[in-house]
Specification:
The chain is mainly alpha-helical. The chain has one domain. It contains 18 helices and no strands. Helix 2 crosses helix 3, helix 7 runs antiparallel to helix 11 and helix 16 runs antiparallel to helix 18. 45% of the residues are buried.
Length: 425
């Protein structure tokens, strides 16, 4: 049933498209066909995953798989860290909520998922899944083979790992195709972090794992569209053919697991360091802002300022105005800090203080790597693979950050457009 709340999301969808068009390098060449195809793919994928009974079984299976992975990971964590990892407590516990330790109960999941992803890639299971999505994007949005493959790979791999998949074609990519690869990388999240996000939201959002997975999938075509709006493909350029071979190879299953764990460890260390530093920086900023006069009887903080700035955007995505301030704050945290911190803050909001629909829409809006820290990761990672184009990458990365941020907002607006009954609300 179509309601005002669904029409409200049209504002957010129009806003993201209009802003990218305003920043386009060629406003006369708006990709109408691609826009229709990308929006159609997004709506179709969301409707398929949540509206078709057989697909709902897949959604249910995803949540059960996440629970199984979490349980298995907990056993390994408790074996190494004992009661710190959630094992039997040797002391009487006065505050049960304090037993949750992020470093021991969320980050280890990334190690397991990273190793599992590498193993599935070696067994060619993940390759065929990626190839299937690549074929979909190639046929529905007219992407060249290399671009379609990179777009599909970004759904499951990180923004640095994906260029490796098409390493042999990087020198053939047009400026528009390279920009699109950067945007899609910033608009999606790696498979190694999806489960961690789902576990963070599990207590407050039903079907959290399914929403996080679908969010990363449907944000890929959004990233493609917004990238092509901002930097249109010139006639006669792009479309490099990909034969779906890859330089990402492992010698054996043990080699895949070992290298997957090593790669996951780098992700864990990077996330840990970023969380420590950015939380400290926010605390420093709030200490500085505390010298300002009280605002509505409370101290001025960075969180409250971001909530005011981004609240209209959060409302435009389809959430209730009562939740807009919280949504705006989360969007600001995701952009200025990281989506990890934003997901943690979203998970901390009690069930009664934000509607389930608003929480669902914000999950889609936050599910992407588009944040200030990812700018450095993108430049360093892609700069190593394409040293001759490093200056070009630096010149595009800030525009790519904005497009990646808006791509997840566009996905959230698409979800807001659909009737709440589709999601069981």
């Amino acid at each position: 049933m179509f309601r005002w709340e669904n029409a409200q999301s049209l504002v957010g969808l129009s806003l993201t498209l209009a802003l990218c068009w305003a920043l386009s390098e060629d406003r006369k060449r708006f990709p109408w066909r691609l826009a229709i195809g990308a929006i159609g793919v997004q709506i179709g994928l969301v409707a398929l995953m949540f509206g078709v009974p057989q697909a709902r079984a897949v959604v249910s299976g995803i949540n059960e798989a996440v629970d199984g992975l979490a349980s298995a990971t907990a056993q390994g964590t408790q074996f190494v860290f004992g009661y710190l990892g959630g094992g039997a407590q040797p002391y009487s516990v006065a505050n049960e909520s304090s037993l949750f330790v992020f470093a021991f109960q969320v980050l280890p999941l990334i190690l397991v998922i990273s190793a599992l992803s590498a193993l599935l890639w070696h067994w060619k299971i993940l390759r065929w899944i990626t190839r299937g999505f690549g074929f979909l994007f190639q046929k529905t949005m007219g992407l060249g083979g290399a671009s379609a493959l990179a777009t599909a790979a970004n759904i499951f791999l990180g923004m640095v790992e994906t260029p490796i998949i098409i390493k042999g074609y990087l020198d053939k990519l047009s400026r528009s195709e390279m920009f699109m690869m950067m945007v899609v990388g910033l608009a999606t999240v790696a498979g190694s972090t999806m489960v961690a996000y789902a576990m963070i939201l599990k207590a407050t959002l039903p079907n959290a794992a399914a929403h996080v997975l679908v969010a990363s999938i449907v944000s890929a075509p959004a990233g493609v569209l917004l990238a092509r709006i901002m930097i249109p493909e010139r006639p006669g350029e792009g479309g490099a053919y990909a034969d779906y071979s890859s330089d990402l190879l492992y010698d054996s299953s043990i080699d895949a697991i070992s290298k997957g764990v090593a790669d996951g460890l780098q992700v864990v260390l990077n996330i840990s360091a970023i969380l420590i530093v950015f939380v400290a920086l926010v605390a420093i900023a709030n200490n500085v802002l505390s010298i300002l006069p009280l605002w509505d009887g409370q101290p001025v903080t960075l969180e409250r300022m971001l909530g005011v700035i981004f609240a209209p955007l959060a409302w435009a995505l389809g959430i209730e105005w009562a939740d807009a301030s919280k949504g705006g704050y989360l969007l600001g945290v995701k952009l200025m800090l990281t989506e990890f911190i934003a997901f943690i803050d979203l998970g901390k909001i009690p069930v009664g203080e934000m509607s389930e629909r608003s929480r669902m829409i914000m999950t889609y809006a936050l599910c992407g790597f588009a944040n200030i820290g990812s700018v450095g990761i993108t430049v360093s990672g892609m700069g190593v693979l394409m040293p001759e184009r490093r200056n070009e990458i630096i010149g595009l990365v800030w525009k790519a950050l904005l497009a990646g941020f808006l791509a997840t907002c566009m996905t959230a607006a698409i979800v807001g457009l659909l009737p709440r009954e589709l999601f069981g609300l």
